[in-house]
Amino acid sequence: MVQSVPTQPMISPPSIRRRLPRRPTGHIPPRVNRAVAALTPLVTPALCFAHEENGAGGFVAGLTHPVFGWDHLLAMVSVGVVSAQLGGRSIWTVPSMFVAAMVVGGTLGMCGVPMPYAELGIAISVVVLGLSIALVSRATRPWLVLCFVAFFGSFHGHAHGVEIPRSASPLLYTMGFVLSTATLHILGVLIGEVAIRGVKLKAAPSKAGSLALRAGGAAVAIAGLVILGRWVEWMVRVGGV
């Protein structure tokens, strides 16, 4: 008779706690990557054709035009900051809308289609975008921001279009100011992200950074009022008002 050997109960190994890897310091949030990815197709053709022999002057002229005007510079950086404050899809849809509207306005300007009081619209855009930085929140309806960004973007584009040098290539000039504008938008997104979440881009928002950002928005709005006042002064001097 075969005797059965008693078997000892199997002891399951202790559960090993799974440790998820922490996000490394300085990690760029996916929403910032999406913003860069959305604007990259707009700037890649400009980089490809930047060294065309007959159009290099036009490309450089378009590239520098938004940078050397305080009204354009403040507005375009502010668009990026506002999109970062809204978060989500707005971080790339808002800048993309501005660039698209700017291209339409620039085309109209290069074709000689008038846009009355375009400079007035640009000055008001700086005021509105500055106030947006000071007042916007995650509860703000994105479509509202998209509407006024598209509206004001056409004024900025028209100003670029009517000031194209006669010897410049319209295509390369357009690529130049599109590249410059997209770069300024990305800069604004990074400024907004760093102000809200700190230099290390932590997940938890920083109240101090948000307050500083809103104070900066108020300063931009004041700068817009100064630009608006100068426009009114100029109109009075030339008899346009």
Describe the structure.
- This protein is mainly alpha-helical and 241 residues long.
- It has one domain (30-238).
- It is built from eight helices and no strands.
- α1 (30-48) packs parallel to α4 (90-110) and α5 runs antiparallel to α8 (207-238).
- It starts with 29 loop residues before the first helix and ends with a helix.
Largest sheet: none
The run of helices and strands is: HHHHHHHH
Low-confidence stretches: 14-26, 42-55
Radius of gyration: 25 Å
Multimeric status of the protein: single chain
Total of DSSP H or I helical runs spanning 4+ residues: 8
In total, how many beta strands? 0
Give the N-to-C terminal Cα separation. Answer: 118 Å
Structural class: mainly alpha
Number of domains: 1
